[in-house]
Design a protein that fits this description.
Number of strands: 4
Radius of gyration: 23 Å
Oligomer: single chain
Order of helices and strands: HHHHHHHHHHHHHHHEEHHHHHEE
Largest sheet: 4 strands, antiparallel
Helix content: 55-70%
Structural class: mainly alpha
Distance between the termini: 52 Å
Length: 492
């Protein structure tokens, strides 16, 4: 009770931010014609696949081979969501339950800000920027990995940032959370050394101030390994069985696959001609006029076993194209910075494009330029006072840039940096307007943003949005082919 009394205002701020994010996401779902569909007009991705896998697991028809091609935690999370809905309210749209993740991401953004500096205006402004985010609401309300990954990785970072030394409990929690993030998005495995380093060194104004604690490093690694072990063993058994199936000229799959087996395949397809930075399967040979992956076809199997060599060979012998390709990938992902706020995506609007298997990106880029400038300025200001945290944020950026450069350029990759962008952007006015009067102005501005944003969402949710869509359909169907580019704009 003493804690609640002492931190009452802080708890109320956190509750306000969480509810704002949740309500914003609910209004976004309610205001679209795809309300009852397993995907969003703004983001298709692999949402239908994750939902179907979850339904198969619930029906007892889990296919272990299919589990090799998609991160397991996202599928099991959807199983939990569907079970909760069936228990709480079977008639309720499960997207409303997913909308809680938008509020959770906003809450974690605020908590992460508070771990850096105990400034109420900064916490409220950063939390509001995340809570009313159009992109956060979209990724939170469809089956997928992005929102779940942000929830886990932001939680890990909030646990990681502390002035004093970590205990073995917090170090173990960081290791487990890092493993869970990797089971959601495979590329997070590469982030393990960063988690180990900052947990073992602690946070101090000077990056080189503290000595490396090998005991804590070992505990983080142990938590990570234990978390990854069940899936690694399960996938190993499945792959061994696949490798025993006879076939002509079939390469043997690598039995070590902690998360998925499609790393080599995606690397090859993302870098071999005619790849252009966005998702494409053009480099994959078509068998019987199908562009689906055939696990037991020799040519397709080679993409799963030799994909890294094939992609590297293509880049090595055409360095000019390699540089241009990386530039295209980063440009596509950077477009996530143009995603704005409220259900209307203010100020960029809803005229835009949804690239293959990707998140909507508005045609207007100037909001992204402004946000990027303020993000860089905020990072420079953070470097002056909280150097270790500035380095951690830089590692987050470099990790994402590395992943984008090696694989596909996705807007949904760029959106994973958005919470950090709003934290750094919100730091600029907080730093420049340091007096108590200015702090009150910032707080009032954040509260006005919440009221006006949710009011707009509420008004526009009553009449579902309609779009003029330019798209190609799937063969022998009137459904949109999500592997192709979709141009759309809202009708008046």
């Amino acid at each position: 009770m003493d804690y609640l009394k002492t931190h009452r205002n802080r708890i109320l701020i956190y509750l306000l931010i969480f509810l704002t994010g949740f309500i914003h996401a609910v209004f976004l779902v309610k205001g679209n014609l795809d309300f009852q569909l397993p995907f969003s007009v703004y983001l298709y991705g692999d949402s239908e696949i994750y939902l179907n896998h979850a339904l198969s697991i619930l029906a007892g028809g889990e296919n272990p081979v299919e589990q090799l091609f998609h991160p397991p935690l996202a599928q099991w999370f959807m199983v939990a969501v569907l079970k909760c809905v069936s228990i709480i309210a079977p008639s309720m749209n499960w997207k409303y339950l997913l909308a809680l993740m938008c509020g959770t991401i906003a809450l974690l953004t605020a908590i992460l800000t508070a771990k850096i500096n105990d400034s109420v205006p900064w916490i409220l402004l950063a939390g509001t920027g995340s809570a009313l985010s159009f992109g956060m609401a979209v990724i939170s309300t469809v089956p997928g990995t992005e929102a779940l990954y942000l929830v886990i990785s932001l939680t890990a970072m909030a646990v990681m940032i502390r002035e004093d030394h970590h205990s073995w409990v917090s170090a173990l929690a960081i290791g487990v959370l890092t493993g869970l993030a990797a089971l959601t998005r495979q590329e997070h495995i590469v982030f393990l050394p960063v988690a180990v380093w900052f947990t073992s060194r602690g946070f101090h104004h000077s990056v080189t101030h503290r000595k490396f604690n090998w005991n804590l490093a070992g505990i983080v690694c142990a938590g990570f390994i234990v978390t990854m072990l069940p899936t690694t063993v399960s996938h190993h058994e499945t792959i061994v069985r696949i490798n025993t199936i006879p076939g002509d000229n079939l390469d043997r799959l690598n039995p070590l696959a902690p998360v998925t087996v499609y790393g080599p395949l995606n690397f090859a397809l993302a870098n071999m001609p005619p790849s252009n930075g966005e998702f494409t399967r053009e480099a994959l040979p078509r068998i019987n006029d199908q562009d689906k992956l055939l696990l037991f076809h020799p040519e397709h199997r080679r993409f799963l076993t030799r994909g890294y060599q094939m992609g590297l060979r293509s880049l090595w012998f055409d360095p000019g194209r390699a540089v241009a390709l990386v530039g295209k990938k980063l440009t596509i992902s950077w477009r996530a910075m143009s995603l704005g706020w409220t259900a209307g995506n203010f100020p960029a609007g809803l005229h835009g494009v949804r690239r293959p298997v990707d998140l909507f990106a508005p045609h207007r880029v100037w909001p992204g330029i402004i946000l990027s400038v303020f993000t860089v300025l905020g990072w420079c200001l953070l470097w002056q006072k909280h150097r270790s945290i500035a380095v951690l944020f830089l590692m987050v950026l470099l990790h994402r840039v590395l992943v984008i450069s090696l694989f596909y350029g996705y807007v949904r990759q760029g959106i994973l940096l958005f919470p950090f962008a709003v934290i750094l952007t919100a730091y600029v006015p907080i730093h420049l307007l340091s007096s108590k009067t200015h702090a009150r102005i910032v707080v009032m501005a954040a509260l006005l943003m919440i009221i006006s944003g949710l009011t707009y969402d509420f008004i526009t949710s009553d009449q579902p949005r309609k779009f003029d869509i330019n798209y190609d359909t799937m063969p022998d169907s009137d459904r949109i082919d999500h592997q192709l580019r979709v141009e759309f704009s809202p009708k008046p």
